[in-house]
Amino acid sequence: MEEIYNILNLIGRNLHEIWHYTILTISGNSVRVSNIIMAIALFLAGFKYSGHFSKYVKNCIKSKINSDKDAANAIEKLILYTALCIYVVTILEIAHVPLKTFAFIGGALAIGIGLGAQSIIGNFISSLIIMIERPLKIGDIVEMEGVLGTVTSVGARCVVLNTFSNVEVLVPNSKLMQNSLVNWTLTNSAIKHQVEISTPKTSKFNYQEFIRALKTVIDNLEFAHQHTDETEIYLTKIDSHQFTFLINFYCNIAQFQNPEYVKGTLNIALLEHLKDYEFTVVYPKIVELKPLSDKSDKTPGD
Predict the structure, then answer these.
(1) Which spans are transmembrane here (predicted)?
(2) By C-alpha distance, which of 84, 85, 175 is closest to 129?
């Protein structure tokens, strides 16, 4: 029995010595095995439960902020980033690794990390700028380099766009800051559409009745936006064979999921209301309602 006690006592002393064994000393702080094990355990626990913490924060913020999804998303990201920094500092303190140590090794690592993680750091900084300036928000309809879609997520690395073909496109945040971005719904969702309608020139043609019929078609469209300006209809061209009318009207882009929906719905309405006329329809390029630059920036004569 005494032999077993001695053996257990020996094992206990060895484990105690291993637990308190100093691996290295950094700036006067002894980094022991116990510190490393506790830091690793805390890191693994944080890695495992980080998803639950993120979900808890998201639910708390959504319960407080229901109207502004983008503000809730920005607050959520800032809280998670702050919690991550505090968590990393806590792990380093438990491991007895002083923060001032990184001042010595930072110079050596700065070049390597700077070159290897340049794009990652750039995307992260761009995400902070997006959260502060808010050039786009969750739910906005944006267009960049020919890609048109709805913003579904603004992350630390990229913005996720859901196109009208239900394709998820990941756009790096730094690319959003460096390239031109068209936000169709930044201040409102009204955009201007132009339609050219040509009809054969006949002696019985009554242009006033034709204009009234066109106005009725546009006014009955469900997505037509009631803007300060009414629907504009102009007789823009007269030749020996036909009349050409130009229609300018505003529509609410938030009410349809595909730009082709406007053309399809309008074509059907024209067929129903212009049964007594022969006509052809041409759709010029969509005209942006909001100019890219302020008119006050233009110099006289531009």
Answers:
(1) 36-57, 78-96, 102-125
(2) 175
- Closest CA relative to residue 49, chosen from 14, 75, 4, 83: 83
DSSP state of 157: S
Q: How far apart are CA 63 and CA 127, in angstroms?
A: 24
Residues of the domain holding 251:
190-282
The answer to whether 179 touches 221, Cβ cutoff 8 Å, is: no
Neighbours of 249 (CB within 10 A): 25
Amino acid letter, 278: E
From residue 40, alpha-carbon distances to 18, 47, 52, 60, 102 in Å are 16, 10, 19, 29, 19
- Which amino acid makes up residue 218? I
Cβ–Cβ under 8 Å, residues 40 and 27: no
- Is residue 112 situated within a structural domain? no
Residue 220 lies in a domain: yes
β-sheet bridge partners, residue 30 = 25
Indicate the length of the chain as a whole number.
302
The 10s digit of each residue's pLDDT in 42-81 is 888 877 777 777 777 777 776 766 656 666 666 777 777 7
Helices H / strands E in the chain, number of each: 8, 11
Answer yes or no: is 118 within a domain.
no
CB 177 within 8 A of CB 186: no
